[in-house]
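Weekly modeling sync, notes
Attendees: AB, CL, MP (scribe)

Item 1: holo prediction request
CL wants a bound-state model with flavin mononucleotide before deciding which constructs to order. AB pointed out that an apo prediction alone won't tell us much about the pocket. Agreed to run with the ligand included and paste results into these notes for async review.

Input as submitted:
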Amino acid sequence: MSLKLHTIIASTRPGRVGPGVAHWFNDFAAEHGKFDPVLVDLADFDLPVFNEPEHPRLRNYRHAHTKAWSESVASADAFVFVTPEYNYGPPPSLLNALNYLAVEWAYTPAGFVSYGGVSGGLRAVQVTKQILTTFKMMPIPEGVPMPMVFPHLENGKLKPEEIYKTSATAMLDEMYKWAEALKGLRSQHKASLQTKAQAA
Ligand SMILES: Cc1cc2nc3c(=O)[nH]c(=O)nc-3n(C[C@H](O)[C@H](O)[C@H](O)COP(=O)(O)O)c2cc1C
């Protein structure tokens, strides 16, 4: 069975540029051919600021939005976050979405396509990587930073630089190795998530 790669659009801001970048990367991942790519838009889940009464690791979710988000994340084998940088950190929409869940993220590799001004979103990536380790995710060193992305967008569509493609290939190759290597841990873990869900 092919491994599912969720490319997550992290910005939910009206007028955001994230979808143009994410569509390009998702299509590129399809051409790359190792993963089964799925584009996931955080805006579709319409998550309010974290409002579950219990710690997410207990998975006693009260809200339909959390259950839908949990189901989406639990179905993936690997993640790429397409993220801007807000004040040298990740956008609140991404931090919020990460914090909504806990165990669903475990034993998956995570890569970043980041964009913004001169830093290409790299400061946001470094901050986020530290948080991902709490979830037992494996942040991949290879990434796709896009400094000064705005001139590369035409009517919301990304016109990629050659370096984006080279970097994306390197990141996907490495992610695939980790996704394969973590398969055993992930399948045991996902089976235990299903058993708990059935018992609830
Ligand atoms: C609240 C806020 C903070 C920002 N901080 C940064 C920053 O620290 N570094 C940067 O390169 N760009 C920063 N920007 C500019 C963003 O890179 C730019 O607005 C980009 O389009 C955001 O991505 P989005 O349109 O997908 O939300 C910031 C934008 C906002 C709205």
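Recorded for review: The chain has a mean pLDDT of 96.
Action items: CL to compare against the apo run; MP to circulate these notes.
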